[in-house]
Amino acid sequence: MSQTIPVLSLQQFLQGTPAEQSAFVQQLGEALGAIGFFALVDHGIDGGLIQAAYAAAEAVFTLPASVKQQYEDRALHGQRGFTAFGREHAKDSPYPDLKEFWHIGPEQVLPMNLWPAEVPSFKPAMLTLFTELDRCAQVLLEACARFLDLPPRSLADATVNSPTLLRVLHYPPVSPEQPPAQLRAAAHEDINLITLLCEATAPGLELQQGDGTWLPIAAIPGQIIVDTGDMLQNLTNGLFKSTTHRVLNPDNDRDRRFSLPFFVHPRAEIDLSPRPGCVARTGGKPRFPQITAGEYLHLRLQEIGLT
């Protein structure tokens, strides 16, 4: 199985020569600037850990609905714990997405995580995966900063003690009665800085190309899919593209799908206004608003139905 988007090796940046590191930075910048996506290999996250996380996720999502609902606190606006099937919709979509999910944040950042007592393996698997994905994200943000001619740690430091989220996603089998236009995840862009998506258990992810056609992205073991979020697009004045993507329904009504996206957020007070150097590289005029990360997040959570 071959990948349809650029594939980058993180070890080239971590252990390569200065020339190899510079090449990685250039490849990353070109991928995020051209299509907003790339696949990452040699990232150091053990495949066994990802599979253990999926096994724990399956155990949680096959619990009775009455049990899962005990971990859904509407006052948290979906920021922790369980969110029931059909509660979230893509911006401007008339239909709710065909999914349910569980949100996990940093243990040191409020609100507190909600852990299912019925599946004791869920907490250690997800916390370990959270730590590993965060480590990887910090490195990628340093590479982004280098491409953008920003201070090397500026983007990574903005995510320390932030509302970064690991979303444990379950797409149940799709009923034949569902409207054809109602998708597992309707066309949308991510809100955050960057997203790291562990290999999903089934295909379905597609990104929209410049001509409006859809490009399938392969779910290949050992690859993490990385994409630009709206916040990083805003900060870079569009130099990095936040690309529309979706998750299609399967061909039959038996298949379920799990995925593990890691949404890397800055702290609420971080200024997302277009950086002067990025403005200079994108025509010389600001094309995106002056706004903080907290303000941006609140607006988008309203748009997708979580507040």
Automatic annotation (TrEMBL):
Keywords: Iron, Metal-binding, Oxidoreductase. Pathway: Antibiotic biosynthesis. One of its GO terms (molecular function) is metal ion binding. Coiled coil: none annotated. The keyword Oxidoreductase applies. Signal peptide: none annotated. It holds the Pfam family DIOX_N. SUPFAM superfamilies: Clavaminate synthase-like. InterPro entries: DIOX_N, IPNS-like_FE2OG_OXY, IPNS-like_sf, Iron_ascorbate_oxido_reductase, Oxoglu/Fe-dep_dioxygenase_dom. Residues 159-266 form the Fe2OG dioxygenase domain. Transmembrane segments: none annotated. Gene3D superfamilies: B-lactam Antibiotic, Isopenicillin N Synthase, Chain. Belongs to the iron/ascorbate-dependent oxidoreductase family. PANTHER family: 2-OXOGLUTARATE (2OG) AND FE(II)-DEPENDENT OXYGENASE SUPERFAMILY PROTEIN-RELATED. This is Isopenicillin N synthase family oxygenase.
